[in-house]
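2024-03-11 09:14:02 INFO receiving multi-entity request
2024-03-11 09:14:02 INFO entity count = two
2024-03-11 09:14:03 INFO echoing inputs for audit
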Amino acid sequence: MRLPVGVKVGVFALVVMGTYTYYANSIPQIQSKPPAELSLEGGNVTPAQLVKAGEEIFKTKGTCEICHRIGQKGTRAPDLAGVGARAAKTKPGMSARQYIIESLLQPGAYLVEGYPNIMPQVDKPPIGLNRSELWALTAFLESLGGTPDVKLDDIPKTAGAAAAGGGGAAEVKIPGDPKAGEAVFSGKGGCIACHKAGKIGASPVGPDLSQIAKIQTPEYVMKKILDPAGSGTVAGFPKGVMPPMFGQSLTAKEYVDLVAFLMTLK
Amino acid sequence: MVLLLTVFSALPALAQDAAREPAYRAFPSSGRGSPCWAIAQLHLNFAAFILGVPIFAVIIEIIGWRTGDARYDWLAHEFVKLIFAAFSTTALLGAFLLFLFVGYYPKFWTYMTSIFFPTYWVYALLFFAETFTVYIWYYGWDWLSGSRKAIHVGLGVLSNLFGTAILLVANSWVTFMISPAGIDESGALKGSVWAAINNFTWMPINIHRLIANIVFGGTIAAAYAAFRFLGAKTDEERARYDWMGYIGNFVALSAFIVLPFAGYYLGREIYAFNQTMGITMMGGFMSWLWIIQAILIGVLFIGSNYYLWLGMERIPGSERYRRYVPMMIGILAFGFMVWATPRSMVITLDEARAMGGTHHPVLGFLGVMSAKNTAVNMMILTTFLSFVLYRRANRISTRSWVGIGMLIQWVALGLAAAVVIFYGVYGYFVESLVRIGFSVYQVMAVLGAIVVVMAVDIPMFKGARSTGAIRWGTIAPRSQYVLILLAVTFTWLMGLMGFARSGIRQHWHVYGVMRDNSVDAVTPAIGYAANMITAVTIAFFALVMFVFWLGGLAERGKAGGHGHTAAMPVFSGGSDADPARVPRPKS
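2024-03-11 09:21:47 INFO inference complete, emitting structure
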């Protein structure tokens, strides 16, 4: 039996694509995940913990390792071995930590001879390190041949501003108690009367909130609770049904707990 | 089209609603990224096809018009027929993609609209203009013939201008996401929208896509011809589609040779915009992607050459040049291996200790750009040599200066190869910044050799003596599978490069400006990307076959649809002396 041309050509094309696909699945698989935010403000952290956190940032979110090596001369950027000791002598009148901080925030202010001015400001997007991360990274760099003595207050307050354009680099940490928030959802808040939230509730009056944290930001959820009409109505649901009095009826703690609970719904 | 315009006219309202809408909406049963990726890639495939084919279709039509050879006119019409059928599918996929963006990424879309809203109208109007011009171009083929042919050709040129303008507008959105410009620190437009359009990667991507679209259009048209060749019932039909496949491949190959240079330009601009992005692209989590790209480009080079060598078997007199084939295979195979050699291996700690690091002590030297640039330039030179030999396969120059001419050609090729190898080796002994500049010298040497060789070749073989007619239609059937291999591989490669272009933004919708805060913000590994690319490529070819079948259905039983079959050429093995030109029809 002669196979139709379409079948022969189709099988041939599938074999070709299958080969490429098989090969692509056989080589090392590396994903690129968004970096996690580090917050050390207000917390007790030992110098050793700080250095360890800084090393992590050096290798991940900071993307420093793409150009800098430690103990190996790079073609794009200087070797950072011993930078903690070297930095104190690089610019007259500047301590090691001051020089390192300046190098991170204004990389073009002083260039090591033989290297181009290509380093980005690490507190600005796309790297966008926050103050805690800058603190830890500085401590790690000081530890390379020196002794870390950097304090959080050494990092300028203006450093690490969030990304613009509505994106926002920082992931907001909700301070509330999700468990207590669930109680507010089912009890005093009365949200359960209209909304489903995972395993609790079943009412179809308002949108299903079972995955609200997946599709909404905390800012939106907080605003929506206080000002439902001003935050728009989800398509397919009637306008003006959600009561606007939660700002008065809930205490500050209940409100924060409720938001914390909603942000666990993923 | 009406659908598209309705959407565009509703955009301000949608944008206002979106400002109050969630940042993201959940897609049922999967992340929202995958459906957007699939539809975007499908849309791009169709768009590339309908923008690429008219470029060479109108050139072929002009050749037919100026030479009075009706066979070129028939071929140009055949090519336009293919894109004509794919037009509405492209528009529908574009509208579908728009719905996905507005629905699942409302905040992102609102932001893009705040920057690019004026361009939406330009895009819609250009789409109108492009559609109507192509309609008149296609349907007016016979009406605007004879003394009115100039008007018809003008329509073809105009449709290409509109098509290119559409490409430029759409590219401004995509490239802004990679290398945003013209905005302040809050992400708002500072002045004119032109500053956002004319960002770092806009022009390089315009050039790269324009050339790539021609390659893509050529390979798809050649694959169509191959399919028709394999299913042909008569020798005449086989001869006709053999020729059509040859022209399609010739177009693709001609554009493909310069595509790597456009790629270099794009890469350089990415580095100029942001070093981190450039380094992430070439040396970060995407580094293995370039190994796959190297394999695909290697397949394209070797496949294109193999097709030309098979084609030479149907040309009497080509036996003289067969002795060069083993040398060319050697260069291509070695170049392929060099290009596919990774710089660093992902290995276990014990293996790394045994090897003295992640770089192989010998082969590691072949993994750097110096070696790869040398390999690709040598492959381009070899492919060009294949074409030159094919071109003169059944011709013997009658010029008195043929000896000097040949000497100039070999010297030009030899010098180019020497320059490429010299800078390839010298690159190991200089700093990276100096080394990057060497690739420019290598490229200039290759392009210079191509220009010199052709400048000598064209007059040297004008009026040449023929050693026999090309036996169109007698090419080995396996050559047609090579054409299909090229089309499938290039389509897959387009998907891969789309992933690279989009993936270098990582977790940013607009790099450094608008972060992807959704749960789908992960940029997948190459295996997942390959699965997606394959699925989309299968869907693309299935749709293309369906669309072509529909186009054929309309013409079946109507003696050529709108009556253009009168110009259909009849082949009987041909007798033209120039293998790069068409055979004469049986009279």
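2024-03-11 09:21:48 INFO post-check: The two ends of chain A are 55 Å apart (CA to CA).
2024-03-11 09:21:48 INFO post-check: Confidence is low (pLDDT under 50) at residues 163-172 of chain A.
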